[in-house]
Amino acid sequence: MTFNYNEIQRVLESFVRPTAELKQAQKRERILNAATNLFVIHGYRKTSVDDVAYAAGVAKGTVYLYYNNKAELLFHAIALEKLRYLSAFKPLFDPSMSALDRLRGFISLAITWTHKLPLLAKFSSGDHELEHVLLEVDSHLLEQVNEMQVSFITHLIDDATERTLAPPALHQRAAALLDLLFALVTGGRMTQIGMTPEAYAQLMADVLVQGIAYQPHEVMAPQLLDQRS
After folding, report:
1. What pLDDT does residue 215 have?
2. Which region, left, alpha or beta, applies to residue 173 given φ > 0 means left and ψ of -120 to 50 means alpha?
3. Who wins on pLDDT, 193 or 56?
4. Would you say residue 8 has pLDDT above 50?
5. For the chain, what is the total number of helices (H) and then of strands (E)?
6. Residue 207 burial (CB < 10 Å; 0-12/13-18/19+)?
7. Distance between CA atoms of 177 and 69, rounded to whole angstroms?
8. Is the pLDDT reported for residue 224 higher than 70?
9. pLDDT of residue 223
């Protein structure tokens, strides 16, 4: 994937709306909107495909025409949510921003974003619903979503390391960073250490990019500073 805002937007749109046919695109979006509302209110396990079909005003068979199962429906709903809030990442594409700041900004936004977007926040709340989703999702779809994310992160790391890493090393680091971010946003640690989401995200971004010895005192929670003294 080209490291370009418009290209990332295009990839998300093609995932959410794989056809240019207007009526189909509108119907897909109606289904995804209904699914999002139900997943946020009731959770993944307590929401059925029948519920989604009823809320969207379509037949159950129509939902299955577009999505193989409930897990696939959730992945597309999350992609639609990301697409709607993608503009939050637009400052990262400012050509005057340094590569290190771009990588740091991405990590920080990825963490805070997860806790601000309703659907993502619901599935990073630590109630283990994601475990059920991953058990049900098709492996091909999971690989497709993972590759989209890893491809983007690879570009960030390649720029930040001034293109000194071989492709295998870049891919390994991108995959590792994606795993770390997933663990951070689903582990529930943020609420346990008395930091705002923004402060926690900035601290983690600084540590991951600058190293463990980096000490951005301005984002540390008071109790953490007290423990160090």
Report:
1. 67
2. alpha
3. 56
4. yes
5. 12, 0
6. middle
7. 29
8. no
9. 39
Report the run of H or E that residue 77 belongs to, with start and end: helix 70-84
Token couple for 26: 């509108």
Distance CA 176, CA 170 (A): 10
**CB 56, CB 31: distance < 8 Å:** yes
Q: pLDDT tens digits for 210-221? A: 888 766 645 444
157 in Cβ contact with 180 (< 8 Å): no
In whole angstroms, what is the distance from residue 151 CA to residue 134 CA? 21
Locate the domains of the chain by residue range. Answer: 5-83, 87-224
User: Does residue 52 contact residue 31 with C-beta atoms inside 8 Å?
Assistant: yes
Distances (CA, A) of 95 to 91, 149, 222: 9, 21, 36
Instruction: Give the residue with greater pLDDT, 219 vs 100.
Output: 100
Q: What gap in Å lies between CA 120 and CA 100, rounded to an integer? A: 26
pLDDT of residue 219: 44
Average pLDDT of the chain is 84
Q: Measure the CA dihedral 41/42/47/50, to 10°.
A: -60
CA–CA dist 201, 207 (Å, integer): 10
Residues 147-158 as b/e (b if ≥16 CB within 10 A, e otherwise) read: ebbbbbbbbbbb
Class in CATH terms, 5-83:
mainly alpha
Residue in the block written with tokens 């969207």: 56
